[in-house]
Amino acid sequence: MATFRRFEDIKAWKKARHVTKNVYRVSRQGEFRKDFALRKQIESASVSIMANIAEGHGRRTAREFANHLNIARGSSHEVQSLLYVAGDLEYIRETEFRAIYAELAEISKMLLSLARYLRSVK
User: What topology does CATH give the domain 11-120?
Assistant: First the structure.
C-alpha cells in the first residue's frame, strides 16, 4: 500500500504533528488555558489528524487508508473552525491564527491528494 513503510514517513503526518504541537502551545497560554471546553476540543481535533493518518496507514487496504485520510481532513477543517473561535475571543494572536490555519490548509490538500491517489490504485 502506497510507498510508505512507516506512518512517520508521511509528510502530512509530520506536518500534523507540528500543528498539534503548536495548537497545544497556544491553547496553554493566557485566557485560552482557562477555557477548558474549547481547549479540549481543539487539542483533540488536532491529535485526530495525525492519529487518523497513522491508523489509516495501518489498515489493510488502500481504500481504508483513504477513508481515514478523509476523516483526518475533516479534523483539520474542525481545527480551522475552532481557530476562528479562539481568534474571536482574543485567545490567540492573528499571526498565530494565520500560521496554524495555513499549515492546516496545506495538510488538507496533501490528504486530499493522497486519498485520491489511494482510491485510484487497483
Answer: de novo design (two linked rop proteins) (1.20.1440)
